[in-house]
Every structure is written in C-alpha cells, then in structure tokens.
Amino acid sequence: MDVRPPKAGNEPAPHLDEPRSSGALVYDGRLLKIYRDEAIAPDGVQCVREFTLHPGAAAIVPLFEDGSLLLERQWRYPLNRSFLEFPAGKLDPGETPLQTAQRELREETGYRANRWAELGPMHPVISYSTEVIHIFLATDLSLGETARDEGEVIDLVRMSVADFFVLVESGQVSDAKTLAAAFWLARIRSGDYRPQWTLSESV
Amino acid sequence: MDVRPPKAGNEPAPHLDEPRSSGALVYDGRLLKIYRDEAIAPDGVQCVREFTLHPGAAAIVPLFEDGSLLLERQWRYPLNRSFLEFPAGKLDPGETPLQTAQRELREETGYRANRWAELGPMHPVISYSTEVIHIFLATDLSLGETARDEGEVIDLVRMSVADFFVLVESGQVSDAKTLAAAFWLARIRSGDYRPQWTLSESV
Q1: Shortest CA distance to B168 belongs to which of B153, B180, B154, B157?
Q2: Considering its fold, how many domains does chain B have in total?
Q3: Could you confirm whether A150 is annotated as catalytic?
Q4: Residue B139 belongs to a domain with what CATH number?
Q5: Among A13, A21, A93, B183, which one is most buried in terms of CB atoms within 10 A?
Q6: Is the dihedral of CA A93, B179, B82, B151 positive or negative?
Q7: Domain co-membership, A41 together with A110
Q8: B150, A182: Cβ pair inside 8 Å?
Q9: Min distance A91 CA to chain B CA atoms (Å)
Q10: Is B1 among the domain residues?
Q11: Is B73 found in the same domain as B38?
Q12: Do A181 and A87 have their domain in common?
C-alpha cells in the first residue's frame, strides 16, 4: 500500500518522479512506522526508499508584547542532550494544524494567545520522513495552567529576539523548526516580511 | 549498546537527562538504523524512545559573484513530490563535514568553490534521529564535471536571493536545511551577520 501523500496536481517537475514498484511496513513502533519501498529512479535504476510515516506537527513562536520570545529547553534522547526550541507537537487525529498549535502552546507552556499568524510549512527530513511542521506566530499571550504529558519535563526560557539570534549564530540553537522560525523573525525584524494576523483562538 | 553521541561536558540542563535503561537495534535497513530504547524521564516515568542512527551530513549554499544562488530540484520519495533545496549529502566514513560539502558540491552540481565559510549546525529532527547537518557557504565558484550516483537525478536552478526569499515566504521552499540557510542569508542581507571566509578547497 502506498502510504505517502497523494501526488499534487501542480507538481513542477513530473519528469523527476520515482514511481513505486512495491513495498511493505517493516517496523511498526510506538512513534516510528518504517516503510521500505522499491521504486524506479528517473534514470531507470531500481532503488530502495526507506522512510517513516508521520502525522505532521505544528510549532509555535510565542511573541510577548515587549518583543521577547518564549522557548523551551527539553531533553532530546537521540542526541543525548537538551535543546532550546520553540514549542511544538504532533497533530492528533482530526486536528487542524492551528488547533494543534493552540493545544500544544497551552499544554506545554500554559499560555493562550489571542492573535495568530501562519508563517509557513517546513519539511524537516525530506529524505526519510513524511513529516511536515506548520509554523505559527502567536501573540497577545495570557498565562493559564500547563497540562503536560507524563514524561514531558520542560524548562521555559524567555529571551529577546536579539539574544535568540546570538544563540543561533553561535550554533547554540540548532533545532530545525526553531531555525526555520528564526528566518521569519529575521525578515520581520529587517522590515521585509509582515505577518498576516488573520487567525484567532479557535478552541 | 548506547549508540547515541556521548554526553557533552557543558550540558546546560543536566536535570533534564533521560538515562537509558535498555534497548536494541530493531530495524537494520539500507539507510535507516532504528533503535528502540527504554529510558527514565526526569519525572521518573519509564518511556520508550525510538530513533534512527545517522552519520551526519553537510549542506552547501553556493553563492555566485553576481549574488545569485544555486539550488537543486530533486524528487523526494517519502513526500511524493520534488523539492527545491541546497545541495547536501551524508558524511562518508572518515570525512570531515567540510570535505563532504566540497565533494557533494562537485559531484551533484559540477562546481568547485575556492572560498568557504561555516554557517552553523542544524539538527533536522531532534525527536527521532541523531542527524546533524553542517551548513557551509561557498563562493568563488568554477564549473567542472558532475559525478552523480546511480539513481540521483537532479535539476540545477540558479536564482537571485530576492527570488529565493519569495519562494520561502510563499511556502514553495520548505526543506529544513534550506530554510536554516535562508536564516543566515537574511541576516547577511540585512547586514547583521558577516560570514567568516576562513576555509578553502581541501581536496
């Protein structure tokens, strides 16, 4: 069974397509669902493509009135260290990315935001995952209660955008979704990008 | 066996550590090496951590004298579509990230660069992979021969930085390493970041 997203009608490079020949689910774990497919590369070569099926995720850039940002520090087991990153989480079944963003912001940080802008999609690992992360900017923040999952232990860190850029440029912030958000923050700061505050709290 | 990177001496949040209890290699594929570990979260909860072991990678931002960029369009099987992205590739055994960057730029695009600057590290998927991508800026480019792998079919696309930003801001460029590079390009363009051209062709 082909579990990948359906092909888009506006694909700009159909001549690069790698048609699927066959394949199977080879590891059905808690988080990881690994598929191993055989496909035909555009040069006619038979190739093996391994990937994990992912439900998608949403990430939030919480921006306070004073211009400061809210980040999280969390242990990231595969890399055996903690990372400074923007809040994020996987889409639950039936959720829109905006609903996920609003739920995760509440659950992980305790904050609600009244004004939301979509920044853009980000594909963290196009070579071996179907994951897409929808990135949102959130402001007009008010503090309530957190509701973290078991095993989810998080330090909250508030800092200025200038300090955040220093951490990125010195390699101390290196998480992909957080760097993608840093692009939009840099463009907003230089006056080249205006967020569209068209979304609001939906839950 | 713990296959993760060793713990760093300068870890800023040792209280968030998730000590490993046990684990095993559960899928040994061509690209993906999936480990399933049990660990203890900081709140004492036993948890399962699944991840793939990755050798690391290097990505290159090729910048021409006229200020234009070189990107690639490639089919990305898991997402069933093509992506516009900067050249990149996995580290071969014994290679430094700079050597990988210089080899991949030659093999995939045919270009050599005489001046190199390291931009920074990027961790594409801190929740389920050990992968790190080292991002380099490369200039003083001269064209030679490509040497692509079998099954590696690539369209080369040259564009201005302004056009590249339009594609990112409209969601048409969404690959993580390419967005991370876009952060540095935005900061260079706004005059806030100066690349350190300290590296040269080493091979």
Answers
A1: B180
A2: 2
A3: yes
A4: 3.90.79.10
A5: B183
A6: negative
A7: no
A8: no
A9: 15
A10: no
A11: no
A12: yes
If you count residue pairs, one on A and one on B, with CB atoms under 8 Å apart, how many are there?
253
Q: Are A58 and A104 in contact (CB under 8 A)?
A: yes
- Cβ contact (<8 Å) for A169 and B83? no
Element (H, E) at B134: strand B133-143
- Shared domain for B67 and B116, answered yes or no, is yes
CB-based burial of residue B123 (10 Å sphere; 0-12 exposed, 13-18 middle, 19+ buried)?
buried
Q: Report yes or no on B98 lying in a domain.
A: yes
Bridge partners, residue B90, by sequence = B57
Q: Tell me, what's the pLDDT at A147? A: 86
Q: CB of B12 within 8 Å of any CB in chain A? A: yes
Please tell me whether residues B46 and B93 are part of one structural domain.
Answer: no
A58-109 pLDDT, tens per residue?
999 999 999 999 999 999 999 999 999 999 999 999 999 999 999 999 999 9
H/E segment holding residue A101: helix A97-109
**B132 vs chain A: nearest CA distance in angstroms?**
9
B55 touches chain A (CB under 8 A): no
pLDDT computed for residue A14 by the predictor: 96
pLDDT of residue B186 exceeding 80, the answer is yes
Torsion A103-A104-A110-A116 (CA) sign: negative
CA distance B4 to A149: 24
Residues A33 and A64 in one domain: no
A76 plus A134 within the same structural domain: yes
B166 interfacial to chain A (CB closer than 8 Å): no
Residue A202 pLDDT greater than 70, yes or no: no
CB-nearest to A155 from B13, B128, B189 is B13
Indicate the pLDDT class of residue B35, thresholds 50, 70 and 90: very high
**Are residues B20 and B89 located together in one domain of the fold?**
no
Q: B32: domain range?
A: 14-52
What ipTM score was computed for the predicted complex, to two decimals? 0.96
Does residue A6 lie in a domain region? no
Quick check: helix, strand or coil at residue B188?
Answer: helix
Whole-angstrom Cα distance, residue B38 to residue B23? 6
pLDDT surpassing 70 at residue B142: yes
B8 within domain boundaries: no
Contact B160, B69 (CB under 8 A): yes
